[in-house]
Amino acid sequence: MSAVIDPLAQLSEARTIFSQVLVGVDGSPESFEAVRQATLLKAPGETMTCLSAWNLEPPLVTPMAGVTSSEADELEARHTAEGALRGAEAYAPSAETMITRGFAAHALVDAIGHEGTTLAAIGSHGQGRTTGILLGSTATQLLHDAPCSILLARQTRHLPPRRIVVGVDGSPQSASAYIAARYLVERFDGELTVVVAEGGKLLDLAAVSFLVGDGFHVISEDPVRALVTASADADLLVLGSRGLHGLKSLGSVSERVAHRAACSTLVVRGTGDES
User: Fold this and answer.
1) HSE-up of 273 (CA within 13 Å, CB side)?
2) Disulfide-capable partner of 238 in 53, 56, 155, 166 (CB 3.0 to 4.6 Å)?
3) Could you count the other beta carbons within 10 Å of the beta carbon of residue 214?
4) Residue 168: count of CB within 10 angstroms of its CB
């Protein structure tokens, strides 16, 4: 049986996931939804920072006119980012703010490293996984490169979340996800649904039983399909991450499900993740 941590002994440690929260804000309704959800999920008394990044489009160059970008363009881009942070204050008036020049994904990953972030949250703009890979969406890059847990926020009916779904396959990573889900369920008096799909290559039923007890039901379906289906009427889907980066992560269950799920998705990176 795989080595699995004791969930009852580790529930308090799950709180640390929500202790240093960073939210990417671009002024869109989706980013404000991320602020709203992160504000409620943040552990009481802990800190939260809203970050807005600004950058100019690649300058247009013509043989006669040369580069067309100007200081006015830079001021406008920065003012837009500042306006996004002012909009976020309506949802998180006590949050710290940060503004930086650069592409959003790079700015967030850099800030995560410098700020000791434990959870980074961004809004979902409805971009599919394939499109995200091709266009380099912020969500895709964070799921690939961020060393902390990630919240991909979508519009939800209930906040705080009432119905939480977690995927468990018996691995230490799924144990971290289960513990985080249990922490949220107990904190918000919610309902927890455990999804165990037998199509998973690394499914360890003995470890699953040790972690969640004997009341679970094994679904005869591919894990991605089973989790996406379960997310249809959930408020929050919680997944473990195996810590894969770059091209290795493109086929990961957590990355595929996070892009396809109907509800907000929390991808937990715990101490058992690979580097």
Assistant:
1) 21
2) 166
3) 7
4) 27
| CA neighbours closer than 13 Å in the CB half-sphere of residue 81 | 22
**If you ran DSSP here, which 8-state letter would residue 250 be given?**
G
d(CA 52, CA 102): 10
The answer to whether the bond into 172 is cis (omega within 30° of 0) is no
pLDDT at 50: 97
22: which 2 tokens?
């960073």
Which domains does the chain show, CATH number per domain? 7-57+73-268 (3.40.50.12370)
Q: Tens of pLDDT along 169-217? A: 999 999 999 999 999 999 999 999 999 998 756 788 999 998 888 888 8
Residue owning tokens 């961004």: 122
> From start to end of 75-233, where are the E strands?
96-101, 119-123, 149-153, 163-167, 191-197, 218-219
Cα separation, 235 vs 162, in Å, equals 6
Q: 95-135: per-residue pLDDT in tens?
A: 999 999 999 999 999 999 998 999 999 998 765 444 433 33
Q: How many other CB atoms sit within 10 Å of the CB of residue 144?
A: 21
**Amino acid occupying residue 172:** P
